[in-house]
């Protein structure tokens, strides 16, 4: 699911970032210094306070035990308790905290795939978008695990550091390295035109198919929860919707304040608002289990992403006049 995304990235474009300092620095600031913490705060407020009674004070979720952690049944770990379920030790945690974990994993994963589509639809600078995608992919190698572990710990959720590091290696580092090496080898052997027109044309559907299979499995595991409480999706979607809009308007407003051109402002705002849900889903599944509330929360992120981002694209196209230098060119 991750390789087809990573192989599209041309890391040679990172060098060009030196010529576009402001939008790149803006993106890094919003994505890594602001977005993870606003996501945590918004999700904690809605899931742990506003919707706490609706989700159910007694509602619990069973998540995987962290790797190498062997606690006796009945032992407390964070906000959870070790129990025996179907002959296997699992952590029993409040359901709303499991949803919070999924939101956290979405908040620390800036988009490096669909943002190429959103930037194109908004008539943004495609070259700059590629640069920001490459830089965020590299930054994710370092900060995804650090921020994820920190925020999960603050939320009194299990922090399986070994699994977290392993998930970064499997779902970020390995696809990045494989994508870089194979991209270079294929272009050297067949040329860039063949790579873009033939290879990527065949490879792209694999990501979509893999994502669809994952979504079907997740919904099948959580079908009983959704049917018994169909508003569960809404309780998770509301903080995600607010977060997406907040980060978009923050990035877009700062871009205007920095006097960026529209073609640079649009993708700079889009990449923060959008999430790398493929990484979030894969990490939630590895850390907490396919049937966990955390995994379900990441899936809700997928469900609202497309309509919300299309709305934001429309807003971009309607506000090009805010950026006077570009208004005549759009």
What descriptors fit this protein?
single chain, 330 residues, alpha+beta, Na+/H+ antiporter like fold, four-stranded antiparallel sheet, 71% helix, globular
* Strands, count: 4
If you consult CATH, what is the topology? Na+/H+ antiporter like fold
Can you write the helix and strand succession as a string? HHHEEEEHHHHHHHHHHH
- Low confidence ranges: none
Number of contiguous helices: 14
Distance between the termini: 35 Å
Look at the structure and give the CATH class: Mainly Alpha
Number of domains: 1
Helix content: over 70%
Mean pLDDT: 82
**Overall 3D geometry?**
globular
Gyration radius, rounded: 20 Å
Largest sheet: 4 strands, antiparallel
- Which strand-content bin applies to the residues? 5-15%
